[in-house]
Design goal:
Elements: H1 7-19, H2 25-41, H3 43-46, H4 55-61, H5 64-97, H6 101-149, H7 153-163, H8 182-199, H9 201-208, H10 213-244, H11 257-265, H12 268-305, H13 311-335, H14 342-366, H15 372-392, H16 400-427
Helix pairs in contact: 1-10, 1-12, 2-8, 2-10, 4-5, 5-6, 5-12, 5-13, 5-14, 6-10, 6-12, 6-13, 7-10, 8-9, 8-14, 8-16, 11-12, 12-13, 14-15, 14-16, 15-16
Length: about 425
């Protein structure tokens, strides 16, 4: 739960509810369904052999070429999406202490790199646990602080929010161009989380860290309950801020509304706790990303070319990779300063590649006919389709993974069947 929660969730989800309603919960319901699918399809595959990254499953099924392509695609897209998350925390720090965005990005990146560098996976997981307690507890304090600050308390909040349509969750409109409908949420949310938790090394390394397959499934399924509570909490904070400000936006972008309230309207002790909570979430997610980017770089690429390396040199290479990726994320965070609502920018970037990755994994897990060459053709088609939809259409991000997965799976299966038929004819 801590690994998949970032600063985007804490500052941008309340802003989303401030501008709209509770419709984002439809996507969260898709997140829950995906956890069941991953427990049935992916986790048993990962625990059949001793693996350290998701992409070793691809190598076992297809071969080294596709293995390198999927691992490389993970590195590129995870770094791009993480750059947006690093930028998001600079918004908070800039509002709180006025250091400016660039200095804020540098501070967070450096501090997180140090403890990831020194502690490895154990440090990442345990700091995640502590930081999650801080930001969930801090946000609960913020919830009751806003409630106390509104004259009339919950009665006023309920009356004003209900009149403004803020409590609406479901939208059954059968349209493709709306981001948050029931169909986009359930289908798109399911595909997105199946890809992120089933194929992304950031989450897969946590599933692999469990003591057994059963424990891994229990952790994943139980986290769904916590995720539903968490997103409901952050969305309700946004609804209450709408009532507190009487619908008038107090800051330039919706991402700045919750941090602005924290700094300007909360007692210093509580505001300090909440700023700490938001920074904790940023460092938690960034440390997880640095660890997964480093491990994929070393295990899936560097050690392939240097198989006889000593343990001491392996640790040194891993630490160097952590430093390099920290510098890359710092640069990407600077680039990310131009964009819309940060949670949607981050999800859009991640979704562009997730469809192709999930299509490849499904071809490997669900079919026996798919081969490496045909799957590479399908992956290229799926990635091209997602880039086109992202850059040249009005289709919202909630459908990107669905489209990419379908094109990759169907294209890869058809290309494999065609190649198999051609090989049979030539031998016949």
């Amino acid at each position: 739960m801590a690994a998949e929660t970032s600063t985007l969730t804490i500052i941008s989800i309340p802003g989303l509810a401030f501008d709209t309603d509770l419709a984002f919960l439809q996507v969260v319901f898709g997140y829950l369904l995906a956890r069941v699918i991953i427990s049935v399809l992916f986790i048993p595959q990962y625990f059949r052999g001793e693996m350290y990254t998701a992409y070793q499953l691809i190598e076992r099924r297809f071969g080294r070429t596709l293995y390198s392509l999927t691992a490389g695609l993970f590195l590129v897209t995870r770094a791009a999406a993480e750059g947006v998350r690093v930028f998001a925390v600079s918004i908070v720090v800039a509002i709180a202490i006025g250091t400016g965005e660039v200095a804020s990005i540098a501070i967070i990146t450096l501090l997180t790199m140090i403890y990831t560098f020194e502690g490895g996976m154990a440090a990442v997981i345990w700091t995640d646990v502590v930081q999650m307690a801080i930001y969930v507890g801090g946000t609960l304090v913020g919830f009751f602080t806003i409630l106390h600050a509104v004259p009339g308390g919950w009665t006023t909040v309920h009356a004003m929010a209900d009149a403004a349509g803020k409590f609406r969750v479901f939208d059954f409109a059968p349209v493709l161009h709306k981001t948050y409908t029931f169909w986009a949420g359930i289908i798109g949310g399911t595909f997105l989380t199946t890809a992120s938790h089933g194929t992304d090394q950031l989450m897969v390394q946590r599933l692999l860290a469990a003591r057994s397959e059963r424990q891994s499934k229990a952790a994943l399924l139980s986290s769904g309950v916590a995720i539903l509570f968490q997103f409901t909490l952050f969305l309700m904070v946004g609804v209450m801020l709408f009532v507190f400000y009487r619908g008038a936006r107090p800051a330039g972008s919706s991402d700045r509304i919750f941090p602005t309230f924290i700094v300007q309207h909360m007692p210093h002790g509580i505001s300090g706790l909440l700023i700490a909570a938001i920074l904790a979430a940023a460092m938690s997610n960034l440390s997880a990303a640095l660890n997964s980017l480093s491990s994929t770089s070393i295990v899936d690429f560097y050690l392939r070319r240097n198989p006889g390396m000593s343990e001491k040199r392996r640790v040194a290479a891993s630490r160097l990779a952590t430093v390099v990726w920290a510098l890359v994320l710092f640069g990407l965070a600077l680039v990310s300063r131009r964009g819309g609502r940060v949670v949607e920018v981050g999800l859009s970037i991640a979704s562009v590649a997730y469809g192709a990755l999930l299509g490849v994994f499904l071809l490997g897990v669900l079919t026996r006919r798919a081969n490496q060459r045909g799957t590479i053709v399908g992956m290229a088609c799926g990635l091209a389709a997602e880039i086109y939809v992202w850059s040249a259409t009005r289709v919202p991000w909630t459908w990107y993974v669905v489209i990419g997965t379908a094109v990759t799976f169907l294209g890869g299966y058809a290309a494999s069947a065609t190649e198999r038929k051609s090989a049979t004819d030539s031998h016949g």
